[in-house]
UniProtKB/TrEMBL annotation:
It is a multi-pass membrane protein. Residues 206-348 form the O-antigen ligase-related domain. Pfam families: Wzy_C. InterPro entries: O-antigen_ligase-rel_domated, WaaL-like. Its main location: membrane. It comes from Halomonas qinghailakensis. GO terms for cellular component: membrane. Keywords: Ligase, Membrane, Transmembrane, Transmembrane helix. It is found in: Membrane. This is O-antigen ligase family protein. The chain crosses the membrane at residues 12-32, 44-63, 75-94, 100-118, 130-155, 175-193, 205-230, 236-262, 282-301, 331-356, 377-398, 404-421. One of its GO terms (molecular function) is ligase activity.
Amino acid sequence: MLSLHKFFELFKAIFALVYIASTMGLLANLLIPYPRLEYADEISSSFLFSWLALYLLTLFFLVLRPGAVLKKWNILFISILALVLLSIVSFLWSSDAVNTLSYAGVLALNFLFCVWLVNEYPISRVVTIIYRAIFIMVACSVVLYIMGYSGVLYYDPHGRETLLGTQPLRGLFNHKITAGLYAVFGFLLCMSLKRRVGRIAGCTMFAIFSILSGSSAAIGLLVIGVVIYSCIKSMLYYRFSLGVFIAIVLLVPLTAVLTFILAGEQLLSLLGRDPTLTGRTLLWGWGIEVALQNVLLGWGYQGYMGTEHAADYAQTIPQFVNYNVPHFHNAYIQIFVELGILGLMLYLAVYFVVLARLYILSSKTAFNFNCYAKFDSFLPLLASLTLLLVSSFFINTFFQYNDFSTLLFFVSAVVVTREFVAKCTYCE
């Protein structure tokens, strides 16, 4: 029989799993019909109350551990708080103040969840919980797909099929593209956390899910993710300096961007693909134009899309007539639009500091047998955050409320601010 203490510990672990899974779309999938039906507004109340319950539990657990927030305040932690606070105070100049205040508040609550999670469990346990959440979501999605459950299917507006000629799989996630991205995160975590048969079985399942999602972006990110993981591991093995790592991280995507700008249209035409990337390049041009209208502070967090200005502008682009554009399909441009050049520069500065510290921590633990459990945790976080720098050029994966990619960044940032991790003076 479980003691009260063990039951409470089990409850906290399940809560963490459910919260993480919900940022990947679990609650939305279960409580909001897809494709959304006429009664979606009626069901959405249960969706909102479910999230409210998760937020209240987060605050409750933080009250039980006040030191989780009150200690370890260093310059990096303060910078992350400044980013969150900037998103909140941006309601003062936002085009939609209510929207901004609401979603920025949710972003802050997600940050608090990450603070609690990292201070509640050692880093190895945190990464294991994240891996289990992805694994359970992917495994259940594949099983339901095989059983023929329509709720996990993706209804492509263009009628496109997967490479296998099947209907795309969205799974229990919020979209097939982000589902594929999260499966890649699971793949990278599996590469580090599992051994032998477990690694082969897990990686195979994540790869199959990516293919069944029917997203060419997901399949491409899987290949890129494996390359990134292998390159970082090799760099650590040969003891490349931090400066070389940062230089490569900066040069590779910049080279890819320049190549796309100079020869992207010709390359896509040769591959038989839409030169606009199904309208993405048009969205990027729109986003840059709008961002330059409020270049310093932006339009406010989540304060532009949904406004009359955005709706009217969308109608001037033939591809977006009668289409509710949710975002610009580029995380860099999205932050530029919402928080201006100030928010974008602050976010990127914090992001690269987190990457740099993860690389340092990985290099310190890579050759220390007593610290190998930490190395197995740092490496997939480092590879995943590096992959996000690439995926964010065509997916909106930075600094989003109730978004798993943002949660992964917050977790990584809080991890490297913890004194015992930052100094790496001992290992669990």
